[in-house]
Amino acid sequence: MSAAELRARLERLLDEARAQGAFEELRPALAAALAASVAPSPAASEAIPMRYGMVGDSKPMREVAALLDKVVHSDVPVLVLGETGTGKELVARALHHYGARKGQPFLAENCAAVPAELLESELFGHKKGSFTGAYTDRPGHFVAADKGTVFLDEIGDMPLAMQPKLLRVLQEGEVRPVGSNKVVKVDVRIVAATNKDLRSMCKAATFREDLYFRLAVLTVQLPPLRDRKGDVPHLVRFFLDAMEKEMGRRCTMTTEALALLERWRWPGNVRELENEIRRTVALSDGTIRPADLSPQIRG
């Protein structure tokens, strides 16, 4: 029985005791039981373990934090590897906000989400009149983030023809806007991320090998949630707190529902868990039970 269910039962007993005139005799015992039913468990009262903005205390996450301790103050490019939903952008933001470039611009771009003909302009900028719709000069992310960090998500989807321009940024620290014959000097740290096997892409000639080696000076491998034993309860508490602020609803979860969440394989990783908690908070009556979870998780 969950704490919320126990509390409701005790409140009913209190009402019955009042109706039967026995409230004064039962009040001390019932009040003590009611207080115990809503008192936070030791686990719930403990601080949620978090390092570099990432929740978790499993061995794989401690190893990630230990690696970040070593590289966060360096200024070399970093390649973040991991499945979709593992938190690659969190690593990029940690490298920026805990490093020497803190307070400077941080700009992120998903190379898979922008059409190839626009991605070059987004990253490197363009001159007025260089193509249809270019009504003004545009600096591009690398110029706008000067002295800061540029995060390139899904770097494996960057068009092959554009990769030499990124290589020039890494090697020479300069960009040439679309439609311009002048280069602009920039000072940016590049953090790239992907869920693809870039080594295999290099062998298949779909990703430049020289660019790969320039990006992978330091590599951070994020573990999938299924390998992070013990982290699901911490993440559940974190997301329940976040949903309370987002939706204005405070929810608890039964041990049976939590056990089902711990058993699930989470192919979408932390992002999938976050979406599951958001859905259950929106639909539940304040206590999340097994019946409130998605069918595939219940099954």
Question: Can you describe what's shown?
Answer:
By secondary structure, this protein is of the alpha/beta class. It has two domains: 95 residues, Helicase, Ruva Protein, domain 3 (Orthogonal Bundle); 164 residues, Rossmann fold (3-Layer(aba) Sandwich), CATH 3.40.50.300. The protein has 14 helices and eleven strands. Strands 4-5-8-3-9 form a five-stranded parallel sheet. A two-stranded antiparallel ribbon has the order 1-2. About 3% of the residues have low confidence.
Give the CATH architecture of the largest domain: 3-Layer(aba) Sandwich
Number of strands: 11
What is the H/E order?
Answer: HHHEEHEHEHHEHEEEHHEHEHHEH
- Trace the largest sheet across and list its strands: 4-5-8-3-9
Tell me the number of helical segments per DSSP (H or I, 4 or more residues long). 14
What is the share of helical residues?
40-55%
Quickly count the domains.
2
Could you name the CATH topology of the largest domain? Rossmann fold
pLDDT < 50 runs, ≥5 residues:
34-43
- Beta-strand portion reads 5-15%
Distance between the termini: 21 Å
Instruction: Describe the sheet with the most strands.
Output: 5 strands, parallel
CATH class of the largest domain: Alpha Beta
CATH superfamily of the largest domain: P-loop containing nucleotide triphosphate hydrolases
What structural class do you assign from the helix and strand content?
alpha/beta
Q: How large is the radius of gyration?
A: 26 Å
Please, what is the average pLDDT? 87
Could you say which overall geometry the principal axes of the C-alpha atoms support? elongated
